[in-house]
Amino acid sequence: MFSLFRRTVVSVEFPRVVYLTQQYGRKLCTPVRPQLIDDTVRERFVTELAAAVEAKLANKKLEAQKRMESRKTKQEVQQRYNGAVKRRKWEDPPEDPEAVKNFDPASRVKRRKSIILLGYSGVNYFGMQRNPGTKTIEEDLLRAMLKQNWINDEGFRQPQQIQFQRAARTDKGVSAAVQVVSIKLPDNLDLEALNSELPEDIRVYAVKRVTKGFNSKTNCDARTYTYTLPTVSFASNEEKVDINTYRLPVDRLKHVNEVLALYVGTKNFHNFTSRKEFLDPSVKRFIMSFECDPPFVPEGATAEFATIKIKGQSFMLHQIRKMVGLTIAVVRGLTDSGIIEKAFGQERYGIPTAPGLGLVLSRIHYDKYNKRYGEDGCHETLEFEKEEPIIQEFFKRHIASTIVETELSTNSMIEWLEKLPLHSYDPRDENEPSEWKPRNRKASDDNDDDE
C-alpha cells in the first residue's frame, strides 16, 4: 500500500509560471522548467496518507467481525423450531463426554406426528390455552404427559418444539366434548396411565398417527359448537314465568330457528367480536348451519333446557355468545330481527354477550384430510366414530350434567336475562369508548378460534 501511494505521488509534477516585466511595461508569460516537490514533504505526505488508509481498513474489518459475532450469538440465543422443518428429529445425546461414550443410539426416542383426542369440562378453568399463573387445560395436559414421559422437559417448557397445536382455543368456562391437539409423540403410549394423572374433568380418548405436516388448526375444515340453555330464556320479556315450570311452545321454537337462520352464510361479524374493524378481512366468517333442537328435561331436574347447534369454518372471540345473546333479545321482544342485518353493516352496535357456561366445542371436522389420506392404508380417518361411545359418556357425566347443575345453582342465565332489558340497541357513537376500539394485538391472534 505504501509503495503504491509513493509511485503515485512521485509521478506528479507541479509546473510554475514566472511573470517577467520588461522595461517597456509589458508582461511576458514565460514557463519555467518544472520542479519536483521537496523529497521530505513528499515522503511525509505519502506516509500519513497510507497510515490513514490502513487505519480505515482496519476499522472496517473490526466492525465486520463484531457484526458476525453478534449475529451468531443472536442465532444461538433465539434458536428454536420455526414450524417449517418437517424432518424427523431425535433426542440429542448427553453432553457429558463420559455419558457419550456409553450412549446407546438404540435408546434414542423416535417421535412421530400424532393427534390427541380429548374432552374437558371448562367450568373450573380459565380456557384451553396455556397462560402462566392460571389454571388452564393445556397446563394440566402437558404436566400429565411430562410425568408419563410422553414429552421431555424441553417439550414441557416450549411446546412449539414438539409442534404442539390446538384445533380451537376455547375461552374461560367453555367446555369441549371433542378437542384435537396435534403433537410429536413417541410410540407405545399408555393411555390409561395418562388419564390417571389427569383430573376427572379432562379425559383423553385416543391417540392417532397423522401425516408429518398435519396441523390440527389449519387442517380443520369446520367446527361445531353447541349452546345449552334453559328454555325460559326464550319466553317473552313481558311474561312472568318460572324456570322450573316453563315449557317452550312449538311456535316459539319455530321463531327461534327463523332468527338463527339469519346468521347462515358468509357475513361480516365485526359487531359480534371485540377490537375488530368493519374493513378487517378476518371478520368475514362462513356459518354453515345454525338451529335449535327440540327442548328436553334433564334427568333429575324439573327445568326445561334446549341445545342450539352451530357449524362454521371458524369463529372469533365471543362471536357465538353474541349471536346467541342477540337472538335471545329478538325472541324476547326487546328488539326486532332487523337489528341482525344492521349489525352486519358498517355501523357500530353493542351486542349483548350470553353467559359462557352453556357453550361447548362439540366436533372438529377434517373432511378434506380424510378424503386425501383416510384410504391410503397408512393413516386413520379423523372421524372418531370408534370413540363416540366414550365421548358421549364423558359428555353426559362431566359436561352436560355440570352445565345443568351449575345453571340451576348459580342462575347465571336468569341473572343475565334480568339485565338484558337495560341494553341499548341503537348505533354507537364512533368516539364512544367500547370494546370494539382497536388495541395492540399479535397478528397470530387474528384468526384464532377464541370461543
UniProtKB/TrEMBL annotation:
GO BP term, pick one: tRNA pseudouridine synthesis
Keyword Protein transport: no
Main location: nucleus
Active site: D171 (nucleophile)
Compositionally biased residues, Basic and acidic residues: 66-77, 424-445
Catalytic activity: a uridine in tRNA = a pseudouridine in tRNA; uridine(38/39/40) in tRNA = pseudouridine(38/39/40) in tRNA; a uridine in mRNA = a pseudouridine in mRNA
Keyword entries, A-Z: Isomerase, mRNA processing, Nucleus, tRNA processing
A Pfam entry, by short name: PseudoU_synth_1
Any one GO CC term of the record: nucleus
Subcellular location: Nucleus
UniProt binding sites for substrate: Y225
Subunit structure: Monomer. Forms a complex with RARG and the SRA1 RNA in the nucleus.
Similarity remark: Belongs to the tRNA pseudouridine synthase TruA family.
Name under which the protein is recorded: Pseudouridylate synthase 1 homolog
UniProt organism field: Anopheles minimus
Taxonomic placement: Eukaryota, Metazoa, Ecdysozoa, Arthropoda, Hexapoda
